[in-house]
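Q: I have 284 residues here and want to know how they pack in 3D. Can you give me a structure?
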Amino acid sequence: MFVVNLVIYFVMMPATVLRVILYPKSTLKQSANANEAAYWACLPIASLTIIAQIALTPSQANWNGTGHAFTLLAYVLWWICVAWIVTLATAAPAFLARQSETKDENMTTAVFIPAVGVATQAVVGANIVTYAYGVSPQLAVPVIIVGYLLVGLGLNLALIMYALFLNRLMASGWPQPAQIPALIVLVGPMGQSAAGIVFLGQAASMNFGGYNEGTFLTMMSGMSASAASVVIALLLLGFDVLWILLSVYGILEAAFKGKLFFTLSWWATIFPMGQSPVPGSYLS
């Protein structure tokens, strides 16, 4: 599956880059729409799946002593993705504000994708420093610190979007029937942020003691960060329950009224519901 993922990635990514190079005006015009602009965050998210698999598959396999080399490859690519996803996540709201073309009734759950991408960045970083072969505390601690910053960025961006989207629901009602299954995307940001915090806490407890610098980067602080991360993750999952129930209610109401039919938006239900149990499984 890792090889299949690589093939798909190296077919689709160059095609996307070529489209931007060959048709820049068309791409820019299309990206002026809030929902279309948000999908650009899918590119670094797709890249993060490759990076995570590098850290978990060839790195751990350590073929002929190449495990550490693959670890360093995943590590460097992760930092490149940090710059990529942070640029997209922070530039998108500014770009949309400058365009002034977003209306409440046109807003879809796609606007949450950049926040999910930032939280995913933190999750992958925590997994690299926890499971990749031969990661030293000196390599791990910067990733953990930046990972917490990424969770803060993604979480607060998601909270802003939650407020805007709730206002959209109150002002304009449920989305169009074809878009109602995508309400499950609302579950994603909180669940992924909770996973990021939990995994970063685990990484902190494993690496802060080995780093042992100052008053914060110590073994005791790592254990405290791990415990605090569990509490914060529970709070986020509690908030996530609100959006799970609201999304399910919207889908069931449309179903009982006979408004639901099969569209590609049903695929949007898979990732959020699949990743939300991840922090729960760790907490158990």
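Q: Anything worth noting?
A: The longest helix spans residues 219-256. The mean pLDDT is 84.
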